[in-house]
Design brief:
Layout lengths: L14 E6 L12 H5 L3 E6 L16 H12 L7 E6 L1 H11 L11 E4 L18 H11 L10 H19 L13 E6 L7 H5 L9 E6 L5 H4 L1 H13 L12
Parallel strand pairs: 1-2, 1-3, 3-4, 4-5, 5-6
């Protein structure tokens, strides 16, 4: 079993959805998604090192070494139709896997991303590595990335902040380049009140596909899936089931 796939694909579904978590997150972010998306979609969370069951493993701070390792972990599971979903740092990782040609000849049926600007643009996710912990924690709490109650629990912050800093270093390792139009559909989900990624930066993802493009602006901030889960899951169902053969839930919501 790959350490990157705590719940390896079991097979039998029409589409596998590989999910890539946000900075500081873990595969637990996708708990319950399979119940929402239904039996025809197999949700396969990707667990990065340095957190949860992999807490003792060293974390990455550079993008391409991480892409290389994740590609190796997924390579034996791309033998049937699949799609990628990534949020924030996860969107960057998912796009990098496709854009750098790391997946061989079988590309995903679709790339679904949220909370990250189009890759040819600069972004605010490479937050200052020198920011003091207190200010950094306050910023993250304001964005919804850290529960406010953790502000008074220094032991929790001491464990969590280094993980987020290293993940943001991965984001900061990304250098914008001219758009490369991928031969797969791209779906973008954007938070209307996202303080890190504005709607225009999300809409610019249309320059990264030669196939269909769809964007949905959802209520909520950077973590719109937490802010308004009902609206988010309706949008996710539409995006994912657009690539499940003969799906009858394309017009959900």
């Amino acid at each position: 079993m790959s350490r990157y796939l705590p719940y390896p694909p079991a097979g039998g579904a029409d589409l596998r959805l590989f999910c890539f978590h946000h900075a500081g997150g873990s595969a637990a972010a996708f708990r319950g998604w399979g119940d929402v998306l239904g039996p025809r979609v197999e949700v396969v969370p990707v667990q990065l090192p340095g957190r949860a069951s992999r807490i003792r493993e060293p974390r990455f701070t550079r993008l391409m070494p991480l892409v290389t390792e994740v590609e190796a972990a997924l390579s034996g599971h791309l033998d049937q139709p699949y799609a990628f979903y990534g949020h924030s740092m996860g969107a960057l990782l998912a796009h990098s896997l496709v854009e750098r040609g790391a997946l061989g000849t079988r590309l995903p049926e679709a790339l679904i991303v949220g909370g990250f600007p189009a890759p040819h643009m600069g972004h605010a996710l490479s937050l200052s590595p020198g920011m003091p912990d207190k200010e950094f924690a306050e910023l993250l709490i304001g964005l919804g990335g850290v529960p406010a109650e953790l502000a008074d629990q220094p032991e929790w912050l001491a464990a969590l902040l280094p993980v987020i800093r290293d993940d943001l270093a991965v984001c900061g390792d990304h250098r914008p380049t001219p758009p490369h139009r991928l031969p797969i559909p791209v779906h973008v989900l954007a938070g209307h009140d996202d303080l890190l990624v504005d709607v225009e930066e999300s809409l610019a993802w249309q320059e990264h596909t030669s196939e269909s493009f769809r964007a949905e602006v959802l209520p909520g901030g950077h973590f719109f899936a937490r802010d308004r889960p009902e609206a988010f899951f309706k949008a996710l169902i539409r995006a994912v089931h657009a690539h499940v053969p003969n799906s009858n839930v394309l017009n959900a919501g």
